[in-house]
Amino acid sequence: MKIIDTIYLKKTYRLGRIEVNALNGVTTSADEGEFVAIMGPSGSGKSTFLNLVGMLDIPSSGEIYLNGTDTIKMDERTRTEYRLKNIGFVFQFFNLFMELTAVENVMFPMMLSGHPFHRERAEELLEIVGLNKRSNHLPSELSGGEQQRVAIARALSNKPKLLLTDEPTANLDTKITREIMELFRTLNHDQHQTIIMVTHNPELGEMADRIIHFRDGKVEG
Known about the structure:
By secondary structure, the protein is of the alpha/beta class. The protein starts with a strand and ends with a strand. The strands form 2 sheets. The chain has a 6-stranded mixed beta sheet with strand order 6-7-8-3-9-10. The protein has a single domain, classed as Rossmann fold. It has helices spanning 46-53, 76-86, 102-113, 118-128, 144-155, 174-191, 202-205; strands at residues 2-15, 18-31, 35-39, 61-66, 69-70, 87-90, 162-166, 194-198, 210-215, 218-219.
């Protein structure tokens, strides 16, 4: 079953009098349970595509279906609720709340969605990512790799159908990068988590099931 289906997706930004075509007619898809890497040079539209699929932005034209649902026609409140319940995000810079502990960071999306057992599930997720003994530590007390693990646990908190990751290992050393990628593979294989990962690193791309190459706002091939 297709979890992502985009049809002739376009996104144009206006910088003064200049129009920049960040995406120029992207038609592509991903199946439920796939681990897909999106690769291409800087400025090719990778992150723009991820933001549109993740409902963080709205395309200039085209169609986006997530699990068969037309997300573009949703009003803002419906989009927010759908995104919270169905999509998890892992970013390059972690984006943790620095005043909250690891377990509180993981709990936060569940509290927003009214999850009744948020503490218990947060502890379970931290155990999955190997941080059950660090649950009461603040982000400032964790290494970069540990912070990214917290971010991954948080992204999984509402059992999302889709996990979107944008250069998730760019700020990490080689050893930690390998550990994070192995964690993604485990989530994909053992829990059938659908993952879409933007990366510029060919070695990381090869760990995915499939690579979609972007160039000049279009899908190559």
